[in-house]
């Protein structure tokens, strides 16, 4: 027993998983904060189906939805350290680690979801993927998360003036905190799972997210006013621990990369359907949806860009994004 204990201690989690030839199948764990059936969860499940099929069952992916393995902040650390092999997470929490991830998180940068797709599917997306490898992660896919807008329990938001003094939950990102401050409101970063009760009890006035999240987390029950300002069209990122990826053979690495690409089309199709379904659900439940004049919101973002786009590399990326037609 002592001998086996020493051997076990000598291996990292990733190496143990991939070095074993005695096992007919290697099971990879993937985390997601969203519930079962959510488009990102289903996108990763589809990725897993492709992996199982194309490796003839040598690899299988187990998807842990509904934050079973922790909230995003926790699972990001788990996948970087190799405790988890795979993770689907918002890109914004990486802003302090991967500077190139700042660009897609900038408010009002993308003109539409189609514009975002062209950017992330092209050279700029490849540049961001390469940057993630420096953080010990391999990007397998960029998934849709639609446009994020503000919602609250207090009143309709039709202009920047209506934002003043309200408290909004934001994801853990300095850009999001500064965006809310620039609009005259107060930002409160907190885990996604705490938002419902915090709005219900008045700890915060509201939050910001897309229609599917507003629906599936039932936030429309406690925050009836949804303002379609569409401040960010931030893609989600599906990543793999780089040490685990490097243990794959070159042939299997290509299978994993291609399966990631192929899962994107499936996820986008599911996402578009879910957005329509969720908007209908929340409207029928009594949510009040307004469309403010965005120009005032856009004008207020000047200090956010001035603070976060100081690096020449990032400035060029911003200019390149705007040039994509």
TrEMBL record:
Residues 1-24 form the signal peptide. GO terms for cellular component: outer membrane-bounded periplasmic space. GO terms for molecular function: carbohydrate binding. GO terms for biological process: transmembrane transport. Keywords: Signal. CDD domains: PBP2_TRAP_SBP_like_3 (cd13671). PANTHER family: DICARBOXYLATE-BINDING PERIPLASMIC PROTEIN, PTHR33376. This is ABC transporter, periplasmic solute-binding protein. The lineage of its organism: Bacteria, Pseudomonadati, Pseudomonadota, Alphaproteobacteria, Hyphomicrobiales.
